[in-house]
Each structure stands twice: as structure tokens, then as C-alpha cells.
Automatic annotation (TrEMBL):
GO function term, MF aspect, one: lipid binding
UniProt-recorded name of the protein: Lipocalin/cytosolic fatty-acid binding domain-containing protein
Highest taxon above the source species: Eukaryota
Family of this protein: Belongs to the calycin superfamily. Fatty-acid binding protein (FABP) family.
Amino acid sequence: MGASQQQMANQNRPKFTLSMDDQGMISMKSLNIFGTPEIQFKLNEPFVQKTINNKETKTVITLENGKLIQKHSGDGGDFIIEREISDGQLIARSKRGNVEAVRTFEKEA
């Protein structure tokens, strides 16, 4: 990622949407300046997901103690994203090994 892309990413305020249809299919979208990645899934059902760098990973999303836990398994090892609502905000924690990143989403008025 070049310097100008890093500056744009640092100023990016993505919009995250989560919805579920009447068949139990869940959709997660993250609208940002680089695109609108979307995944559709049912809880506890493994599926193949293409990552932003176009690699395929085996993914399963579960609901554990009020948190959505998204586990990716692939050649690069396991990658986990935990999403939870806390104080009216969506907190997303991404973890790989001993590295963790946290992103906070605020609800629009």
C-alpha cells in the first residue's frame, strides 16, 4: 500500500451493515473507499470466503456469549474476528497469533 493509500485508509470512516433475512441468511457489508466487501452466511455453517487479497479461506461464524466469532482457516494460519456490541458501539477485534487490531463502529443517528 502506497503512502497516499495509507493516508486515505487512515481517514476512512467505513459503514458496516448487518442484516438477516427470514431464512436465517446473514449479510455483513463494509462500505469503504476501497470497495464494498460483503459476505453472506448462516451461523455455524462453514463456507469458503475470498479475502481482500483474493485468497480463499474456510470460514465459519458462530454466536458465542453475545459475540459474533468469525474464524478463518487458510495457508497463512488461523485468523479470528470477534464482533460485539458494547455501549451502543460495534467493537471488532481482529486477531492473528499474538497480534490484535481493534476497530470501533458508531451507530449513525
